Amino acid sequence: QQLYQQQQLYQQQQLYQQQQQQKQQQQQQYGERRRVEQAVQDPSFSEVIFYINGAKHVLQNPDPALLLNEYIRAQPGLTGTKKTCGEGGCGVCTVMLTRTDPSTGKPVSHSINSCLRPVCSIDGMSVTTTEGIGNSRDGFHPVQQKLAECNGSQCGFCSPGQVMSMYSLLQNEANPSAALVESHLDGNICRCTGYRGILDAFQSFASDFDPATSACKTKSVLSAQAEQQAPHRSREVVSFLASQRNRTHKIAYLHAKSNKLWFHPVSLSALSQLVMRYQEYSRKLVVGNTSIGIYKHTNEQVLIDIKDIPELVAISQDSDGITFGAAVTLTNVMETLQSAASGTKTQHFNTILKHMIRIANFSVRNVGSWAGNFMLQHDHDFPSDFMTLMVGIGATVQIRNCQTGTVTSNVSPLDFLNTDMSVSHLLSLNIPFCTDSSEHMRTFKVALRHQNAHAIVNAAFRIAVDSQSKVTTQPTLVFGGISTRAVRAEATEQLLVGLSLNDISTLQLSCQSLLTELVPKLDPTPGKIQYRKSLITALFYRFYVSCLSSVPDDIATVGEEFDRPISDGSTSYDTNPVTYPVSDGMPKPFSALQASGEVKYVDDMPKGDGMLHGAYVRSKVANATLDAIDTSEAMGMSGVVSILTAADVPGVNNVDNTRNLPQNLYEEVFASKNIVYHGQAVAMVVAKSQEEANAAAAAVKVTYKDVKKPILTIEEAIEANSFYPDPYTASGYTTGDIDSGFSSSDYVFSGQVKDGGQFHFSMEPQTSIVVPENGGAGPAGRFILHSSCQWPAATQSIVAKVLDVPFHRVQVELSRCGGAYGSKITRNNQHAAAAAIAAYKLNKPVRVVLDLETNMEMVGKRHQFMCKYKVGVNKNGKIQALQLDYYANGGYTLDATVGTMGMALTTADNAYYFPNYKSAGHCCQTNLPTNTSCRAPGCVPSTFFVEHVMEHTASVVGMDAKSLREANFYSQGQVTPYGTPIMNWNIPTIWSQIQESSDYESRAQAVADYNKANRWTKKGISLVPLKYGIEWQGARWSALINVYADGTVSISHAGIEVGQGINVKAQQVAAYTLGIDQDMVYISDTGTEKAPNSTPTGGSITSAMVCQSVQKGCQDILANLDAISKMMPKATWPELCQRAIDLGISMQVSAQVVGPRPQEGPFTYNSYAAAVSEVLLDVLTGEMEILRSDILFDCGQSLNPVVDIGQVQGSFIMSLGYLHTEQLTYSVDGRCTSAGTWEYKPPQSKDIPITFNVDLLKNSPNPYGFLSSKASGEPPMCLASSVYFAVHQAVDAARSDAKAPSGYYIMNLPATVEEVQTACLVDYTTFTI
Predict the structure, then answer these.
(1) 1274 catalytic, yes or no?
(2) Do 807 and 1101 form a contact (C-beta atoms < 8 A)?
(3) pTM score above 0.85
C-alpha cells in the first residue's frame, strides 16, 4: 500500500513538471508567433480555399488544430458526416477528397477520415459528403438507395460513412470486383447490421455480382449522366482544381488558441529553412496527419505540410527498383507495385501487396505516407507492418539533412531507426527488384481482428535456396512486435547459410536459435509475452514449409495461404398476406434518409452562438479520498465560463434510479468525497467551445489522499468479500434434491469458466444537450433535454431530482439513438444531469458529448461474469444434478447489476431439464465504472456457461455433444426452475430442420476426416439450441395518435428507435388496423410530454408492446368513428375523418398498454432457435475463419421479417466480438487500457461468416405474442456460442495431436487468438517436415 501511494505521488510530481515545461514552451512560442505575424505581409498567405459539395469556402487564418470533421459538421445542413472515435478507426466520419495529383495534373478522388484531417491541409481541394451525392429532394444516389433497399442501415449512424466509402471506390473503379468491394469497407464499423445487408447492397455494384448468392436480387448500375453532375465534377470545381497544380508557398497560423504554426512549403529549400528555424520547437512533417488517431496528445507546435513538394511526391523506376518520395501515400505505393508486379524481378511485390491490404484501412492508406509510418516507429516505437515489410524485402531509404543539404543514401530501415532526425527528414524509399529467382519470400501478421488491427506479431522472411533446398546466401528474417522496434534475427540468418531445408535438424536448430536471440520485450497488452515467443517459431515454421518442394500431406496446409472467398448468405421467411402490411418484409422508410445524412440525431441539432460545451475532469486513481481541486489555472484559460463540482449540484447528487437507495450507494454526478473508480467525474469545465473545455479540463489539478489499491476483478472481490449489501443481491433457484442427485450420478465433476465483459460500442456517443427556457431555474422556467437515451422518463425524473425542480419542468425530447444496446438506459443520465446543472447555473444551453476514450474509461460496460459449476451425470448422458454459482462484476454502484443477475439466473437452464438443480447469484462490488445492461444482459454469459457445461459433460461421459444435448432437452409441459412451463416447445422441430438444411451430419463427418488428415490446421462444427424467455410483466408504453382531416395519421410513441425498426412496425400496425395505406402514417419524435411515464426501450419487447399500444389507440379511433361509418357506409377514409372533425369528435387518442403478469413464472413466452457454425483454425497462430453459420430462428409470425432478419444477423455478429475479439484490459490502478479503436476490436466485415444463412421458422405463429409475433433483437446474441464451441472442437483436435493431458480444457472469454493458440499447446520441438 505504501509503495502504491509513493507511485501515485511520483506521478503527480512528474505531471507538475511537465505542465511547467509546457508553460515555458508556450511563452517562447508566443514571441515567435509575433515575429511570424510581422513577417507576413500578404493576407493570401494565410487564406485557405476549398470546396464542399460544390460550394466554395474561404477561411482566413484558420486554426491549424481545426479538423475537417468539426468544420463540416458546423456547416448548416451538413451533419450527415458523423464522429465516433476521432481515431480513424470506425469510419463514420468518411468523406471523399478530390485533389489535383501533383505528378499528373489530373484530379484524383479517394475516401478519407475527416476526423484526422486538418482544414489547413485541404487548401485547393474539394470535399464531397453524403449530402452532396443525393437526397430526398433531388433523388437518392444509387449507393444510398441500395443500402436502404437491402436493409443495410439500422440505427443509421454509420450509414453516411459506409456510403462515402463505397461512393469513393466507384469514382476510381466503376465496375469493381466483389473482392475489392468487401476489402474497401475495412475502415467502417457497423454495430447494428452484422454487415450482411451492407455487403449485399454494395456487392450489387460489382462486376462479378451474382444475384443467386445475394439477398439483393438486382445488379446496381450507375448513371453516367448523373455521375457527371456530381459536385466534384462541376465546371467550377474542375477549373479550381486544375489551377492548383502550380501552387505557391502558403502559411496559416493561429493567434491565441492552439499555439500552433502551420506551413505549406512547395520546395525542399523552403522546407529546410522551416526545419532549421523551428528546430527548438516540437515539430511534425505532415502528409495525411493520420498519426493523431493513435497519438492524440503529442500536441506539436509546428506543423509543416510537405505533400506538394515535387521531390517528395515523385515516383521513379530504374533497373534496380522503384523509388518513392517521402510524401507518397501507402495507397500510391500499392498501386505502383501492383502495376509493376509481373515477372521474376517483381516476384515479391504480390507478397508485399497482400500484407499491405491489412495495414490500417483504405481511408488511412489513401493519405498516410510511408515516411510517416516509418517516423511513427522512429519516434513512438509504433508497431509498423510497413517497416517489417521493407526490412524483409531489402529496401533502403535516403535521408536529407536540412542544415547541410547533404543526402545519405542506401540507409537500411533499421539503421534509420537509430538515426538522429532532429534536423533531417526522409527523402525517398527504394524498393529493390528481385535479382535471384531462387528466392522465396513470405510475410505474416497476427492480430486480434482480420482487418484494421495492429499486429501482435508480424514477420517478413526472404531466403534463397538451390535445387537441393540448400540455403545459398544469408536470408532475411525480420520480426515486429517482439521488441519496441522491428528486429532481424541475424544469428539465425547466419546459421542457415549452407544448411539444407530438407534436413529436420535445420528446422530445429533454427527454432532454437530464434528463441535464443529473440526475447519478447514488447508487451502493451499484458500476458502476451509467451504468445509472442510462440509466434516466433510458429511463423518461421509456416515460412519454412512453404519453401520446401514437397511435404507430407498432413502438414501441407502449413505452407499455404488462406484466401478468404467472397462472403455470401441467404435468408428465408414466410408472410401472411391477410395481415399486410403487417408481416410484409420491407426496409425502414427512413433508411435512405439515414444513408443521405438527412436524419438528425441529438448532436445534429443547431448549436447556436450561445451554446456552451462541457468536458469532465476525471480522477486518475480508482480508490481514494478526494483531497482538493485546484481550478485557478483552468479558470484563466481562453473561453472558460465555469467549472462545476459537487458543490454546484442544486438537488440530490445521485443519478441511480433505484428507489430508496441508501446514500452510500449513490452514483454521484460529481464526486463529493470518495473516489471509487478511475475516470470518475470530479468536476466539469464549461467553455465556449469543446476544444477550450477539453484544454481547461486538462489543466485542473486534483489531489487525493488515502490512496488504496483498487478491487478490479471478480476474484479480487471474492477475496475481499466485496459484495453489494442486502437486499441488493440475487438469490437463485432450487428444484429437486441436489445432494441426492449427485450421490446417484455415475460421474461428478466441477469446473469454473468466465467471460471478459463487453463495451457497447454504440456508434453514437453519449450525448446530451440541455436548453433552459423562460429563465431556466426561475419560477416560470423549464429545461428541455435532448438526450440520446433509451428511457426518457428516467432521465426526466433523475434530472429533476438533481436540479431539485418538479418533474414537469424537465422535458426530454428525441427522435432516435445512433445505437444503444443498453448503454443509454441509465448510463446517459449522469451526462444529462451534468449538462442540466450547467444550464441551471449559467442559464445557457449546454452540450455534453463524450469522446470514445472518455466513454470507455468513464462509462460502464457489459457485466463480467464467472461461473463455478458442479455436475452429476449418468453414463447415458442424462444430467442428474447441476449446481451453479454465478458472480457478476457490478462495478462500484448498483444500477442494473441485480436485474442482470436475475436474467442470468432465469436463462441458466437454456433448453435443458435438470431434475435436481441449484443456482445462486453473487453481485460483486468493485472499483470499476458501474456496469450496466448490454444486449441480452446476463443471458449471453449464462447461455454460454450452460452450453460450456454440456460440452464439458459430453467430454467426461465420452459422448458427442449433440447427442448429450438431445438427451437433456426439455419436453412439452415440464416446468423450469423459475416456474415457467414449457409451452409451444419448438426446439425439436428447429433442431431437426437446421440439421437437414445445414447438412450437419455429412459436414460433421467431413470435419472429423479433415482433422485426422491435417496436423496444423483444424476444423470444428457445433450445433447449439436456444430457449430465451421474454418478459412483459410490468412494462408499460403509450402512444399518442393524431388523425387529420385528410385522413393522414401521425403517431408519437414511448419507444425509442435505436435501429431495431420499431417505427416501421408501428407504421405497419397502424395502417393495418385503420385499413389505410402505410404512407399515410407518419411516426414523429417522442418525448416525455407526448408519451410520459414509460419503461425503457430494451428487453426486445418494446416494438411489440408499442405496436400493441398503437393498435389499441387506432381501435379507439375506429370506435369513435363507428357511428359515422354506419351513417356513411360508402364514404372514403378521408371523408369519414373530415366528417368526424366537423361533428366535434376527437381524433386524438392516447393509449397505454401494461404487460400482464403471467400465471406461472416470469415469462410471457419463449423464443426458440438453433445455430450451426463451422470454423477453420490455424493452430500455429490461433487465427480462425468462420466458414459458415446457419441460424434457424423462431420469430413467430414476424411483424416485419426483413427487419427481424437484420436483427438476427446484427445480434449474432455483436456476440462474435464478445466471444472472440473484444478484449477489455485494465492497468493495476484501474485505468481502462483498451479505451479506443487501437486496442478494442469489434468485428468488421471480414470477421463475419463467409457463408451466413438466416431463416425464420415458418408456420409458427406465437399464440402468446402480439399479432402472433416474437422478439428478435436480443435472443440471437446467445447463438454465436456455436462459433466458440466449433473453435473449441478444433482446439480439442489440436490438443489431441499434441498429446495433451486428458480432460476437458477450459477456455475463457474472449477466446482471442492468444487464448486459442495457447490452448493448442504449440511446441516447436514437434514441428516436422
Answers:
(1) yes
(2) no
(3) yes
